[in-house]
Amino acid sequence: MKTFLKILLTALAVIILAKILPGVSVGGYGAAIIVAIVIALLNMFVRPILIFFTLPATIVTLGLFLFVINACIILLADKLVDGFAVSGFFAALLFSVLLSVFRSALFTLLNDDNKSIEN
Prior knowledge:
Structural class: mainly alpha
Number of domains: 1
Low-confidence stretches: none
Number of strands: 2
Radius of gyration: 15 Å
Strand order of the largest sheet: 1-2
Shape: globular
Distance between the termini: 20 Å
Order of helices and strands: HEHHHEH
């Protein structure tokens, strides 16, 4: 249930960011949910492989290269999902940074609600 809620919150963040950012568009709510699922799967399977192979660059840049990896994940999701479009690398970079911020804020709210219910 918690995973399903996280996917829906990520889809909500994708919709909000697509309306705010120029160069990012999403076809609708169904496409946003599919984008959220694809991003979750890419983060689960592809991101660790990319981090492993780019570890020297990540170490030299003190972790800043992870932003490039996140942008590549967004561009890959753009290629995999119809109804989701990102115009270029810098739009993907900005989208990935803002998506991380939105997800952190929304997941914190989700965790705060769970803690208040348990007490």
